[in-house]
Amino acid sequence: MRTCSICSHQQRPEIDRALLEGIPLRDIAERWGVSKTAAHRHKGHVAGVLRAQQALTVERLLSDLADLQQRALRLLTKAERTDDLRGALAATREARETVMAIAKIIETSELEGRITKLEEIIEQRRAHEQGKD
């Protein structure tokens, strides 16, 4: 089995960072003198780190949105106690918007996970086919 040229590259940490930052493979290839194909293959080696990083970002976003939702619900309760209909309506809208944002983030992160799994399957099949040649 062929070893990854980027795994043994002197500037691997910089290349890994660029991949994690989402810099286009074409730019990585040009900047560090590697092939676009090698950068794509190596991306699979740092995919676990990338997924963990994305999961933390999604977790933080969901946590922040949950905090906002709690604030909106507290404002709604306060507005209802004081018969502030405009305030209650505004707080209701905010609570609804945070629920919609949470749902969208969850949906997007699930879709990204499916795409990543499909990319891994495709990469495994390509490697398998290349091994037959």
Order of helices and strands: HHHHH
Q: Please tally the β strands and state the result.
A: 0
Termini separation comes to 13 Å
Class from secondary-structure proportions: mainly alpha
Number of domains: 2
Tally of helical segments: 5
Share in β-strands: under 5%
Radius of gyration: 23 Å
Low-confidence stretches: none
Mean of the pLDDT scores?
86
Relative helix content: over 70%
What spatial form do the alpha-carbon principal axes imply?
elongated
**Quaternary:** single chain
**Major β-sheet profile:** none
Q: Briefly, what is this?
A:
With 133 residues, the protein is mainly α. It has two domains: 1-45; 48-132.
What does this protein look like?
It is built from five helices and no strands. The longest helix has 48 residues, at 85-132. The protein is elongated, with a radius of gyration of 23 Å. By secondary structure, the protein is mainly α. It starts with 11 loop residues before the first helix and ends with a helix. The chain is 81% helix and 0% strand. Helix 2 (25-32) crosses helix 3 and helix 4 runs antiparallel to helix 5 (85-132).
Please describe the topology of this protein:
Elements: H1 12-20, H2 25-32, H3 36-43, H4 47-81, H5 85-132
Helix pairs in contact: 2-3, 4-5
